[in-house]
Write a structure and sequence with these properties.
The protein is α+β, with helices and mostly antiparallel strands and 456 residues long. The chain contains four helices and 20 strands. It comes from Actomonas aquatica.
């Protein structure tokens, strides 16, 4: 700007100097000429300074412009979202698992419930083939799982829906599930167990039990809670039995005039707290439901209450559970007694003592193996549980399991030994004889079990 103001002045001075008549120039005094020269010199100096300032300003502006093009944008515009090929399928995942089992032990024949090799060499068979569908998009979620098994009777197979629900997550992170979902009872999804066999809570329908209904789950501070209503069990699907082609153990109606589960209510609360290096979960569960009669006998009902603490220290986990249950049934039912109830799962019916309490405990250790390329971690475990029956003359049913679970990528392998004096899937010497019911033999039998599972 200073340069622009100087230009007219310089132009006028220069023009005057060049256009003066010769006579006037001769008449000018030396002082005037010298004064003009000094003024011109001063103006030229100011012009040079102005030109230098202009050049410096242009250089700085150019450098800042280049720097701006190279610097990252502190708040860049988000990249345009990539639209999925099928927008409705965004958040959908399909997977599954294949499991193969080897087992042997105290078996005398190819019994329907075990199909073990009578020669004593054990047996290898397809344990499970399953398909999983999971969906999560925004607050909505869904899960479905269908399982297929080899049959116990001849070459027959059976299959059933394991899980099938739609869920919604609220703004406070509480969740709602509607459909066939896991009943909230006990310390976790699989009770106290780390083993392939689970503990005896599973075989009386009080661990990893799937039913049809609605479940609400939430967290408030150090408390987790669940409340649920189930209109019925998960139902029987396709198999050789009338009502036992299902995953979880329920009251089943094999005779056509027995009982079925209806209108069940569940509540569970678990408190979490720490003390030094220890962490604890202390919880309680309650269940009540109806037993609908399909025959001439009266309707019944059932209930269960459970206390379940869990303690963790470093890589160790100790879990325990103490439960009481009762199934109130009419002695006019097809079994002809009010002390036994028809139960069933895995296309195999059995009987269960109607009144008992259970105690179970497990100790496990999780060992990470970062230096072993073929192994991610392993979990050695020891578990004990017992169905202690209140009916006089009924023998208790105990189960002791110890082993190691191995994990790598999609592989999960169980290597374990199970010993029991009252479990349908451990040995068959002397037949079954209502092992979860009266258990008249009460003989300790052994099963060696290897289960190879690949999850994808």
């Amino acid at each position: 700007m200073k340069l622009i103001r100087l230009l007219p002045v310089l132009s006028g001075l220069c023009g005057a100097a060049l256009c003066l008549p010769a006579a006037a120039q001769d008449a000018a005094t030396t002082a005037e000429v010298e004064a003009l020269k000094a003024e011109v010199a001063r103006l030229q100096a100011e012009l040079s300074q102005a030109q230098a300032a202009l050049a410096a300003h242009e250089t700085a502006a150019g450098s800042a412009s280049v720097a701006a093009t190279m610097a990252p944008d502190p708040e860049p515009d988000p990249a345009p979202a990539t639209k999925p090929l099928f927008p409705a399928l965004e958040g959908l995942r399909i997977g599954g698992a294949v499991r193969v089992n080897y087992y042997g032990g105290d078996y005398t024949d190819n019994s329907p419930a075990t199909a073990a090799d009578a020669a004593g060499n054990g047996a290898v068979a397809l344990d499970t083939f399953r398909v999983n569908v999971d969906y999560a998009r925004g607050p909505w979620s869904a899960k479905a799982e269908y399982r297929m098994f080899r049959g116990y009777y001849g070459n027959d197979s059976y299959h059933f829906l394991h899980t099938g629900w739609i869920g919604y997550e609220f703004e406070n992170a509480d969740t709602l599930q509607v459909g066939v979902n896991r009943v909230p009872f006990g310390p976790g999804p699989y009770g106290i167990s780390q083993s392939w066999f689970f503990d005896q809570h599973y075989y009386v329908g009080l661990a990893d039990d799937m039913d049809l209904g609605v479940k609400y789950s939430g967290t408030r501070g150090d408390w987790d809670f669940d409340v649920a209503y189930y209109v019925s069990d998960e139902g029987s699907w396709s198999g050789s039995t009338r009502d036992s082609a299902r995953y979880s153990y329920d009251v089943v109606n094999e005779s056509g005039s027995g009982y079925g589960e209806r209108n069940q209510f569940n509540a569970r609360a678990i408190r979490h707290f720490t003390a030094g290096e220890w962490s604890f979960d202390v919880g309680a569960s309650a269940q009540w439901g109806q037993l609908h009669s399909y025959g001439p006998q009266d309707d019944g009902d059932h209930y269960a209450f459970s206390f379940h603490p869990t303690a963790r220290w470093q890589n160790w986990t100790f879990a325990a559970q103490l439960t009481t249950y009762r199934l109130n049934v009419d002695a006019a039912q097809p079994l002809g007694t009010d002390t036994l109830v028809q139960f069933g799962a895995y296309d195999f019916p059995t009987t269960l003592a109607a009144d008992a309490w259970l105690g179970s405990a497990s100790l496990s250790y999780t060992l990470q193996t970062p230096t072993i390329a073929w192994l991610d971690y392993l979990v050695p475990y020891l578990e004990y549980s017992s169905i202690n029956k209140r009916e006089a003359g009924f023998n208790d049913s105990e189960l002791l399991t110890y082993g190691v679970a191995w994990a790598h990528g999609g592989w999960y392998i169980y290597t374990e030994v199970a010993r029991s004096n009252g479990n349908d899937f451990v040995g068959n010497l002397g037949g079954f004889n209502s092992r979860f019911g009266a258990n008249p033999n009460a003989r300790w039998l052994t099963r060696y079990n290897l289960n190879f599972g690949y999850y994808y």
